[in-house]
Specification:
alpha+beta; elongated; 6-stranded antiparallel beta sheet; DNA-binding; 354 residues; homodimer
Chain lengths: 354, 354
Amino acid sequence: MGVKSLELDERKLKILKAIIRNYLETGEPVGSRTISKYTDLNLSSATIRNEMADLEELGYIVQPHTSAGRIPSDKGYRLYVDDMMKEKEQEVSGKEKEVEEMKEFLIERVDKVELLLQQMAKLLAENTNYATMITAPQYNKNKVKFIQLSRMEAGKLLVVVVIDGNIVKNTILDVEEEMTDETLLQLNMLCNTSLNGLSLNEINLGVIAKLKEQAGIHREIVGSVLDAVADAITVDDDLEIYTSGATNIFRYPELSDQEKAKNLIGAFEEKELLTNLVQESLDKEDRQGIQVYIGSETPVQMMKDCSVVTATYELEEGVKGTIGIIGPKRMDYEKVVNTLKTLTAQLDNIYKKT
Amino acid sequence: MGVKSLELDERKLKILKAIIRNYLETGEPVGSRTISKYTDLNLSSATIRNEMADLEELGYIVQPHTSAGRIPSDKGYRLYVDDMMKEKEQEVSGKEKEVEEMKEFLIERVDKVELLLQQMAKLLAENTNYATMITAPQYNKNKVKFIQLSRMEAGKLLVVVVIDGNIVKNTILDVEEEMTDETLLQLNMLCNTSLNGLSLNEINLGVIAKLKEQAGIHREIVGSVLDAVADAITVDDDLEIYTSGATNIFRYPELSDQEKAKNLIGAFEEKELLTNLVQESLDKEDRQGIQVYIGSETPVQMMKDCSVVTATYELEEGVKGTIGIIGPKRMDYEKVVNTLKTLTAQLDNIYKKT
DNA sequence: GATTAGCACTCTACCCAAATGAGTGCTAAC
DNA sequence: GTTAGCACTCATTTGGGTAGAGTGCTAATC
């Protein structure tokens, strides 16, 4: 409380917040009488009405129709969220039950990151009753860690490339020429000594030329191997996105009419549409990686009737991903922000310990 | 036409079919007057009414309410579909426009099967206006083809297992003991000679014991490697399922009320629920791999208001997957069955040529 | 015996009017 | 500056009334 606004005095702020809180709970337009009782201001409904008229003029609340109560505008929500965030800034996010539950779950041995994330999205959706999305971590600084060439069968060469983060990628090459175990061993050593520790940018023409020169008659094979390596360390442009709880939108009447539902669920199905969201939130990273998009602020047009909260997590240095929660504008921002804060923090810790 | 039924004479059959066809087109209950004009039987509506009463008693059609026309029951659809299938049996499925389009698309070089299937599902959904699902191919007869152990860095052993169908799987092992390049080479040879060509069932205790014996002091490592191999050749129990066009259900009023839509889309999100469907259709494979489930016949309870048509495709010997199309009971069975028939056929051909 | 015309009956869908009630804006009094 | 009071607005609900589609049944016809 007590954060000054440029145009709002203390009382107006208090009323605005009361309106928003009430609306978050009920989902129904809130009238002056309700506020008059709801707050500790001890003001009559008439006074509240006057203040509300002001608030409306300033654009913080709107009336769905003439004789209805008020609901918050995007601007109103924005103020509320910013204010709320400032208040909570210094608070240490206390342990919450859901996160506890989630931690327990995470500790079970899960081999594959994908599976983990998929299940995390599901759990998050179940706990929050909103729709969720989690992107697989993006390995931005991919460097070659280890290369292994082996002859699988006649004419087939298996190339295994391990990159930072112990990601393993394979390619099977068709090779014309036969070669001895000897030369294969030499090629292996050659590739490893020349390429290990290098990123995509660092493998320039000079390196390639030198490598090919050293390879002598096997320059062709080296060429193919280099392609495979390049493929391996190139950042996947179509990143994996795991989603869950899309059907949760049916819990909120303001989102569940035919048209809106179709749009939203469509956006969840066409995952490419979500990439904007991911990019945006990776770029604008501040506030501990948490971003709140309200209504038309969202980078994804199809979600203009929703609010979206995104958080960035980081498994290891440079290995980042995004978690997003999509719900109605009247979502419980505090809970969502807190959950995301603790979740990303825990995710970081837990994963490093495994 | 002209397929005798146990309880229906020629005329009743004709009327039933007329009712169903009409309903497929309009989606509205069809009345006696409509049929009286629609058919070439030249019967008055009154006569039709009598026949309809019979058909209803026999369970082929139902009335949504007393004074409405009739709509087909599941039993009615069943008869229609079976009959239709018999008629088309000998017909060579002519080239259809959509499949042509699809073929063109498939020919573009697509590296990853996953991506191909994902896009195929999408294309299929767009062309049919139903919801679609495609499972990644299941490699049922997994046999070890090649094993490669290599020391990645100190204490880390990279195990690469290639199985039938050139599927490559990797595991990174932590190993205590150091070993020379020599022993590593020997272990490699040992594993390959002992295990290549074997399937999960064939790697029994005898093989394992013999292998461990030969490994001598490295029996522990062999144990870990065996685990990795077992992991690799075990059929993925959670198979990948690609879906698309879930929002198409909103095109059909009878499926798009809140409750039904939520269920259906939920089923599409929780892909595990779809595995029943896949199993069932892989088991009951007849009729060129095409199965039609009408309403409550479906193995997935949540789809009891829909019809589901599944087809099995086979990329290589023993490498099978399932394609499913989910739509309203009044889906265009003929078109769907034909599309699936040609698609699976083409898929087979095209893939083998690449 | 099968077919048909005719009629009473049943239900849904739609429209319209009135009643309800939540909530406002404004004015006048405190 | 605050409040009580009142007239007004508008979405929502309610109920009745009608139109229309379609049936089932009966009696007449072929």
